[in-house]
Amino acid sequence: MSDLREIVGDDLEPGELERLERVHALLERAGPPPELSPAMAVAPEPPTARIVPFPRRYRYTAFAAAAVAALALFGLGYVVGGGGGPDPLQTVAMSGPGPASAQLDLFEKDAAGNWPMELRVSGLPAGTYELWLTRDGKLAEPCGSFAVADGETRVPLNAPYKLRSFDGWVVVPSGNREPVLTT
Amino acid sequence: MSAESRTDAELLELIAGGDRNAFEELHRRYARSVLGIALRRLGDRGRAEDVTQDTFASVWRSASRYDPERGQAASWLYTVARNAIVDGLRRRPPPTVANPPDVAAGDPGPAEEAETEWVSWRVHRAVESLPDHERSLVELAYWSGLSQSEIAEYVGLPLGTVKTRTRAALRRLADELEGELR
Q1: pLDDT exceeding 70 applies to what percent of chain A?
Q2: Quick one: which of A171, A10, A20 has its CA closest to A100?
Q3: Position A22 in a domain
Q4: What are the angstrom distances between the C-alpha of B154 and each of A34, B137, B149, B158?
Q5: B146-179 residue pLDDT tens
Q6: Kind and range of the H or E element at A82?
Q7: Mean pLDDT over residues A139-162, rounded?
């Protein structure tokens, strides 16, 4: 074991000497951390979501069950809601550089923290788009993708996030990070 | 505020929101520490590097689960790293040795090994948090095998300055490692 006084000098007060001796012992005990190889010195690419397909034999059963559940929920909602939809808590207007515009209706958050939404968009060229939440002007969290044909498109979406930690919404073409609609 | 000046807990909060810069900063701070415990447990550089990558992938996916009220970010990251190591061991157990070597009676037991591992984790992280000009002197003083005179010559500073800066670094480490010093 090396001598602390050889490393930092010998003019230490007794209290400080004792404290630094303990750090000295920890450093000796820990030993050196390994050096990183060049490949390890950079952070890995953040993983993307993994899609786990249903086994083929269960696929049709799963589709049928989902369809039955959706119908049952729709029926229940229709009865409970008296046939009309809930009123949005907030409506966010979105616009783009061209004639395209959108209106995003935000409904009451569920117990799990999901914010149901309905996006009504018009004037965008036909294609596939994504709705994103932004923070400091950058895309932060995705809220789903949707396809647009001619005329107005209405699509239900969901934001499972704490909305207070974001500062806006944008629509981008799928695979592109340049917004075509912003709040 | 830049990612470099954020605390570990703040970085985790930003990572939970998908902040790539925060992720890179956390990787800069902890990659060597994670690789260190992975190497210690697995004894194989390639597997340890795989586990280190897995650890940061887990951090990216589960940062939102970190709750500052339940403990320090360093402890949470240590747990994530240990879980990744256990997963790595499950996927590829170490080869079975037909005639295992005799274990010396003085070898550390599992509890002592875990204690040493945690101390190394905290010490390496604390050293990583020092200002660059102090960190390099501590690393040279403790882990290069050079004397202080040789270090002074190597870095081109007077011997007294090297000792003063190393002392300042040790004081900073003492503050940072308060819990381990008791």
Answers
A1: 85
A2: A171
A3: yes
A4: 22, 10, 9, 10
A5: 899 999 999 999 999 999 999 999 999 999 888 6
A6: none
A7: 85
CA B47 to each of CA B24, B44, B103: distance values in angstroms, whole numbers, following the listed order: 22, 6, 24
A:B CB pairs within 8 Å? 108
With CA atoms as reference, the chain B residue closest to A31 would be B143
The model's pTM: 0.56
Cα–Cα distance, A107 to A109 (Å, whole number): 6
Instruction: List CB contacts of B130: < 8 A, sequence separation 6 or more.
Output: B138, B169, B172, B173
Lowest mean pLDDT among A53-57, B13-17, B84-88, B109-113: A53-57
Show the tokens assigned to B92.
């590829």
B108-118 burial, b at 16+ Cβ within 10 Å, e below that, comes to eeeeeeeebbb
- The C-alpha atoms of residue A124 and residue B152 are separated, in whole angstroms, by 67
The answer on A125 and A162 residing in a single domain is yes
Cβ–Cβ of B60/A47 closer than 8 Å? yes
pLDDT, chain A, mean: 81
- Flag whether A53 is in a domain: no
Find, in chain B, the residue whose alpha carbon is nearest to that of A40. B49
Confidence band for A59, pLDDT divided at 50, 70 and 90: low
Pair (A105, A172) in one structural domain = yes
pLDDT(B61) > 60: yes
CB contact under 8 A, A141 and B17: yes
> Number of structural domains, chain A?
3
**CB < 8 Å to B138, chain A:** 27
- Written as one letter, the residue type at B81 is A
What's the pLDDT at B165? 95
Nearest to A23 among B31, B39, B173 (CB): B173
pLDDT exceeds cutoff 60 at A125 = yes
Beta bridge partners of A25: none
Compute the nearest-CA separation of A83 from chain B (Å).
37
B146 phi, psi to nearest 5 deg: -85, 150
Let me know whether A106 and A172 are in one domain.
yes
Whether residue A176 sits in one domain with residue A116: yes
Q: What residues pair up with A132 in beta bridges, in sequence order? A: A142, A170
